[in-house]
Amino acid sequence: MNKVFLIGRLTRDPELRYTGSNTAVATFSIAVNRNFSNQNGEREADFINIVVWRKQAENVKNYLSQGSQVAIDGRIQTRSYDDQQGQKRYVTEVVADNVEFLGSKNSSSASSSSSSSKEPTPYDFAENGSPKGTDVESNPFADFGSNIEISDDELPF
Fold first, then answer.
1. Could you list the residue range(s) of the whole structural domain that residue 76 is in?
2. Nearest Cα to 77, choosing from 101, 53, 55, 49?
3. Domain of 76: which CATH number?
4. Which one, 73, 82, 93, 118, has the greatest CB density within 10 A?
5. Radius of gyration of the chain (CA)
6. Is the pTM of the predicted complex or chain greater than 0.70?
7. How far apart are CA 51 and CA 102, in angstroms?
């Protein structure tokens, strides 16, 4: 089985090209943090090349840029080519089946700044730790009309 799941940030803006048959292909790389620190106590990252095809490639180009956070699922592919000097070169990359947009490069810095123009999100919390603007004591279905009674006794099986 050849399956890869990655979460990381784009290290550069995606490059979009089209094949001879007018199929969109985008390439970019992401930095994925390692789970451990090196001997100096610093966290290192791996830089992984990603290839994505068709409509998803166009979406990646239109909506992602350097620093955007993404989740990738796909497969590892190794291909080879001859360079200008005639040397055989090998490239290992992830061919993405799915690219999930997790956040922009500004989303982490925006949450730490206290700007009055910032729109509230579902992840904004009050001082007591509960989500802002959410009254967990109220009935969210109160305005939907009369009560509906459901009983297991009426099921046909």
1. 4-108
2. 49
3. 2.40.50.140
4. 93
5. 24
6. no
7. 18
Check: CB of residue 99 under 8 Å from CB of residue 30.
no
Provide the token pair at 66.
Answer: 């350097």
pLDDT tens per residue across span 3-35: 999 999 999 999 999 999 999 999 999 999 998
Give pLDDT tens digits for 52-67: 999 999 999 999 999 9
**CA–CA separation, 34 vs 45, rounded Å?**
5
Domain annotation covers residue 87: yes
Beta strands in the chain (DSSP E): 4-10, 15-18, 24-37, 43-53, 69-82, 88-103
Residue type, 45: A
Q: Is residue 25 part of a domain?
A: yes
Total structural domains in the chain? 1
Six-digit token pair at 27? 């390439």
Amino acid identity at 18: Y
Band of residue 38 on the pLDDT scale cut at 50, 70, 90: confident
> Would residue 18 count as lying in a domain?
yes
